[in-house]
Amino acid sequence: MSNAPIFRPLPIVPARVPVAIESFIVKVAARCNLACTYCYEFFAHDQSWRSRPPHMSVETARQTGERIGAHAAASHLGQVSIMLHGGEPLLVGPRRFKALLEAIKAGVADRAEILFGVQTNGLLLNEDWLQLMELWQIDVGVSCDGPPEIADRLRVDHSGRGSGAGLERALSLLSGHPQFSGLLCVIDPHSDPIAVWRYLASWAPPLVDFLLPHKTWAAPPYDLSDDEAAPYADWLIRVFDDWMLHAPQIPIRYFEELLTRSLGGSGSLESLGEEPVNLLVVNVDGEYEGVDSLKAARPGAWVTGLNVVEHEVQAVFENELIALRQSGGTQLAEECRSCRLRRECGGGYLPHRYHPERGFRSPSVYCRDIMKLTDHLHSFMRAQAAE
Ligand code: SF4
What distance in angstroms lies between residue 1's CA and the mean position of ligand 1's atoms? Predict the structure, then answer.
């Protein structure tokens, strides 16, 4: 893939029949108490967080709920999922957090059932927070990249202090708690995959998800001139083999989705497959965003110029990149259209496709990793079938 020819970007055509948005990431805090070394939110092209309010106002939350409720009613959705996100969402404090929940719920009203979730670094979690989560039935997902030494190296605060001890406190509180929904791990290919995976598994999470760092062809994750290199596949393959041997009862979403798609099924991860994406981000000031990790791609890639005050949710379907995310496989790069793994991969996660000359009509910068990993999974399935 490193020698892929350069094409002129093609115009993006809106999807004929947009798919209703069923999942919303609502950013309630624009700041974070950590400054993770790989963070796309604060250290990539986008510095707009500096000029945004530090947290969502109650009125913006109500308007957000109002727009979500109207969209749910118009699209005949019985249920919507609302993930409270940031920055670090718990930075707003429990009182404001509760006020924001009430405002969103009042806005949606009885037009849809809301499944609330929160994605946190866990450092502020305590018993009071957990009571609030339980009262509101909020699923709590924690970002955890592995044992404390990794958190101390990569997930540091603004003074450079590590977060390993604080994270362990949070995981002790959450493990076995009914609101614990899972662990999200950004892969560090220099780490020991078995040590990381077994550490995550030791907290008995209901789900583990591994994320590829948000890199692009403009800022590749590793030296692509070495045609043999696929460090993320190598890392994930070791986890997969250990998972299958020792703890297949803990779902690992990335693997399960690849396996399901290989068998002809569909999935929910927007980073795999060709299904139109049904997820939208609302920032602290009420602005709709294309997808927040596009901040790792080119400047302004995430900007829609639309917001909850002036625009219905449906207005985002006119936006170029949301149209691309809604178009499924119809606007993939040529290599992806003819790829034998198109069904499983679907061209990869949109931000990872960004190429300075080809725009988003390019295979994922992780193409060779996805191929190597998927081939390994296929070999595993063939061996299982033979047995
Ligand atoms: S593996 Fe994925 S990114 Fe690579 S060519 Fe196939 S569909 Fe495209």
Answer: 10
